[in-house]
């Protein structure tokens, strides 16, 4: 009797997994086990938040078409708004130190994220950003929409290979 139930359960599991495309199945498995892509520390709820890909994708999606100083022509970036992220973690800060995998770090005033639709991008032209490119996460300003953003003072805030935001008072 119990052996038969076991066989039935195994059969159901095979059927439900088979309903997913190979691609979705791989994405699902990866997301489940993936460690945090973005670490947020400092003036946030609980003092720290670690967000994996699944948590980042749960934020309202935002898209931005712009040229950059390091690529040719215009590109479509997908991600989420920096202000949505900071509100999600209940930020109380006025500055964030954005830290990259290559140890590059820069302080950015939080006011930037309210004056402009600055996004944290995880894909460019429909392709996920990876570490050998500017990924996994890249701070992207709506450079083409605002002349004042076409300035070196803003260029250095476009942190690529972003992995940590330290929220400062
Ligand atoms: N991770 C990371 N992001 C970075 C930098 C960097 O060295 N590392 N340089 C910054 C600076 S100074 C500028 S002007 C822009 C463009 O830099 P790049 O031409 O070196 O890509 O990216 C910014 N983001
Ligand atoms: Mo720079």
Account of the 3D structure:
With 169 residues, the protein is an alpha+beta fold. It folds into 2 domains: 1-34, no CATH class; 37-168, Oxidoreductase, molybdopterin-binding domain (Sulfite Oxidase, Chain A, domain 2), CATH 3.90.420.10. The chain has 6 helices and 10 strands. It has helices spanning 2-18, 22-33, 53-57, 82-88, 112-115, 152-155; strands spanning 38-42, 48-51, 61-67, 74-81, 95-100, 105-109, 119-124, 127-128, 138-140, 162-168. A 5-stranded mixed β-sheet has the order 2-1-10-5-6. Strands 3, 4, 7, 8 and 9 form a 5-stranded antiparallel β-sheet that branches. It is globular. Residues 5-17 have low confidence and may be disordered. The structure holds ligand MTE and molybdenum atom (MO). Molybdenum atom binds next to loops.
Give a short summary of the structure.
Helices cover 29% and strands 31% of the residues. It is α+β, with helices and mostly antiparallel strands. It has 2 domains: 34 residues, no CATH class; 132 residues, Sulfite Oxidase, Chain A, domain 2, CATH 3.90.420.
